[in-house]
Design a protein that fits this description.
The chain is of the alpha/beta class. It has one domain: 3-Layer(aba) Sandwich (Indigoidine synthase fold), CATH 3.40.1790.10. The chain has 11 helices and 10 strands. The strands form 2 sheets. Strands 1, 2, 3, 4, 5, 6, 7 and 8 form an 8-stranded mixed sheet that branches. The protein has a two-stranded parallel sheet with strand order 9-10. Strand 5, helix 6 and strand 6 form a beta-alpha-beta unit. The longest helix is centred in the C-terminal third of the chain and has 20 residues.
């Protein structure tokens, strides 16, 4: 039994725009909300959120900014909800461990990379776009300070399009961690791993998948292969698994 089998679907509320896209089969792109509540000052945070949503629409997809409000996972936010997240001092920063508490208590919550992946999966959204993911912190060999984002990348079948990991982290160890947990890392249009605000971290040899310059189509196929392999392993399927296509 997977998470979706046990999850109460009434805890998810889709905006009218997202609901229409689901009904019409149009592509959806999940967006996180921590950048709104904790990443930038007001009003630049709300302005940036709207600009990012506009860019997604310009490329033919429908943005689905995710947050927790009034005891529900909100998939797609209206202007009032964006303003609330952008100005409320009470907004929680939600990762996997925090989602249950925020939902149960009706708290305002902005989703991190990990929490957004979970919510996107529950909402049936396969692609999530963000800035920089979390990773292994410098000195983690003694502090064990490793972002929950990395575990989520290994366990939740959602494709994350990002600008690499945040540059303040130990990027070499972050790549090693991802490799150990079987997370494909693909660089589009370049060979090296990105470092948040810079395209090139100088790292290319830690993971075999970062040594090749990939295209969006091949990245999508790689993701589907990875998800199919994970399902086969989880169910101990003995049949040959074909690459899922759309």
């Amino acid at each position: 039994m997977n998470t979706q089998d046990r999850f109460d679907p009434t805890l998810i509320d889709f905006s009218p725009e997202v609901s229409a896209a689901r009904a019409e089969g149009r592509p959806l792109v999940a967006l996180e909300s921590t950048i709104i509540s904790h990443g930038m000052p007001y009003p630049q945070n709300v302005q940036t959120a709207r600009e990012v949503e506009a860019i997604v629409r310009e490329h033919g997809a429908v943005p689905a900014t995710i947050a927790v409000l009034d005891g529900k996972i909100r998939v797609g936010l209206n202007d009032a909800q964006l303003e609330l997240l952008g100005q409320s001092p009470d907004a929680m920063k939600l990762s996997r461990r925090d989602l249950p508490f925020a939902l149960a208590t009706g708290r305002i919550g902005a989703t991190t990379v990990a929490a957004t992946m979970i919510c996107a999966r529950l909402a049936g959204i396969e692609v999530f776009v963000t800035g920089g993911i979390g990773g292994v912190h410098r000195g983690a060999e003694t502090s064990f300070d490793i972002s929950a984002d990395l575990q989520e990348l290994a366990r939740t079948p959602v494709a994350v399009v990002c600008a690499g990991a945040k540059s303040i982290l130990d990027l070499a160890l972050t790549l090693e961690y991802l490799e150990t947990h079987g997370v494909p890392v693909l660089s589009v249009g370049q060979e090296n791993f990105a470092a948040f605000y810079t395209r090139d971290s100088g790292l290319r040899r830690t993971s075999a998948s970062t040594r090749r310059r990939s295209r969006p189509g091949s990245c999508a196929r790689s993701g589907r292969w990875a998800w199919a392999a994970a399902r086969s392993s989880a169910t101990r399927c003995r049949k040959r698994t074909r690459c899922p296509r759309r």
